[in-house]
Protein 1
Amino acid sequence: MAESPARTAFAEEALTHLDTLYRGALRLTRDPDQAQDLVQEAYLRALRYQHSYQTGTNMKAWLFAIMRNLFWDRFKGTRKEDVSLDDVGDFVLFEKLRDEGARPEADVLDRIAASEVVSAVEKLPPLHREVVLLVDVEGFSYKDAAQALGVPIGTVMSRLHRARQQLQRSLYEYAVESGIVRGSTNGATPQ
Amino acid sequence: MNCPDCKDKLDRFVDRELNNTEVLELQLHLEGCPECSDQYEFQAHLKRLVKHSCDCDAAPAAFREKLRQILT
Ligand SMILES: [Zn+2]
Ligand SMILES: [Zn+2]
């Protein structure tokens, strides 16, 4: 099929963001085949709605929005509780480690395997997972993340905060199980 | 700035979302407060750990080529 030069140029530019979209899709679906399907569908849709992209705005955020909206379409009917995170309270890994005399606290992080971090991220409910992917992994500003997710900046911040609390909780559990830290002596270790 | 204010702004600090004035105020507090400074180090390290752990997956070359065929 002979494509117009404008369409080809647009597609080429869109493809420079492929890694970001693929990583996002992979973490959201947790399956490489589904991730490829989702990304391919997102790109086809992006080209179809090329006219709705405003030149000069953040194309990466625009593409991510298309991909995650497709992902969420498949989640329609899922109960909100399953995709969102209750306020887990302030769980601060840093303070746990401090209480246990692990100094400096940040050194403990160096002993946590990357694969454990990935699985802790994948365990986050998707609404929180996607904020971590955008802000921490892809380096989006709150404003761009808000655009990609279609929510106010305040929502980005609160989801991110809860996600980080939950992430610390998971990493702490792993650190205790694997003997990196000793674990609470007062029996308060979350299970 | 006191410690609760500092902790409140730490997320935005590690995410580079504070304005210049706020950054200066926060840095000044961190220089004089080992507790907050340790906490900052920890949060910044955690953010880097999440990034490095998750950002190594690139789209497979064959998939990239397939998309290029379909789209261009
Ligand atoms: Zn302080
Ligand atoms: Zn690192």
Note: Residues 186-191 of chain A have pLDDT under 50 and may be disordered.
Protein 2
Amino acid sequence: MKRTLKTPIRNEDIESLTAGDIVYLDGTLVTCRDVGHRRLIEYGMDLPVDLSGMAIFHAGPIVRKAGEGWEMVSIGPTTSMRMESYERQFIEKTGVKLIVGKGGMGPETVEGCRRHKALHAVFPGGCAVLAATQIEEIERVEWQDLGMPESLWVCRVKSFGPLIISIDTKGNNLFERNRAGFDQKKGPVMEEIFRKVRYIK
Amino acid sequence: MENNQKKRSLTDTMTRFISLVAKRLPDDVYGKLEQLRLKEDSPLARTVYDAMFRNQEMAQELDRPSCQDTGVIQFFVRAGSEFPLLGSLRDVFDEAVREATRVSPLRHNAVETFEEKNTGDNTGVRVPWIDWDIIPGQKSAEIDVYMAGGGCTLPGAAKVLMPAAGYEGVVQFVFDVITSYGVNACPPLLVGVGVSTAVETAAVLSKKAILRPIGTRHPHPKAAEMEILLEKGLNEVGIGPQGLTGASSVMGVHIESSARHPSTIAVAVSVGCWSHRRGTIRIDGDMTYEILSHKGAAL
Ligand code: SF4
């Protein structure tokens, strides 16, 4: 069954979800990446968008003007880990409930998600056209002084996903777990290969 | 045709070809992804593959670059010494990149180093990057276009090992890079390994390795064996699409090598992501062309 989250997202909507689950999003999704995070956390500036119960997307889109409004040409996730040092405080200050990006995040974000009830999820990387077509409308844009990739694009999305939950509200971190698994598996596999490549006699 | 006319004609061809490469994966990559998709049985891996294929279809339908990161554009040229536009290729590539950036449209990905300014047209000092091989006597040129995205460029690494580390050291290096940084580079990956004498020679060879069509083998039987061992071994680690675990990690492992100093084994790794946008085109002396990487494509 397809699980869909709708903004505003409440704690009870996400508390039962577990890292590895797949969800889709209806509602408001705001792009916010490096400088957006820095402005709020380091410079203490107020975000021009109320993110309480909303979703953000670590992404820098390609947008083109269409009449009075804007059209999303292409939007794909960027590496979430770059926002790791800000994300715990970001969640605390904004009340954001869903953070979408690429790859995993670290212990600070895990702590933020656990304490304030939020999720980190990944949108498959390299699927920028798919993501663009799931955006029904760009409602407005803020902080345009940051340039196209860093502006806050406030988007209305429909069935946005697949979103694979990587950090849940219970302290699970999918990418950490996977990485530990890869490390464990690689030892014996390498040993096997070592024996076969002793080409220097 | 006058040389000026030829130049215009080639610029036009290359502009269209760059656009094509941004929007459609080469046949070997697409075919390999289709194979790997069939091997996945977890709902998670399948969902990701479904999204990837849907994305490629929509890119065709809407005529847009399939990934937002259209990379820094690199050209790998194998040009005949008698190719009429040998001296003009730099101009042709610069102009074609500018034009393709406008019409495709491509994201602006060239930041002038030290200036720290985006040039806004994907050209800059030494960019687009050109790598040259001159083929004596030949009249035609074969050109690879490659879009190096940030995500898949990041894992790139090289190291000069002592001979005592042996080929075992090479294996270890490849595994370490792929199971750490590779996970975030949009797997399944195409892994290029350079085994050579110095850090830069190994690095260039590792990049050339991922420009080879998937599944082609190194001519030396031991190197070919090692390609297969690495491929099988990395797949057993099961990184899966987007690092979410699955039946495979890589689309392939290719090794390129050179002779080396007896006291060194230099190893380098270059990584291509699942959206491995490379194209190969052959240009004849009269500027007619054949696209080798995308069958049936029209420019
Ligand atoms: S790694 Fe490749 S598919 Fe992923 S975002 Fe970068 S260019 Fe696109």
Note: Residues A 76, 125-126; B 67, 69, 149-152, 185-186, 273, 275 surround iron/sulfur cluster (CB under 6 Å).
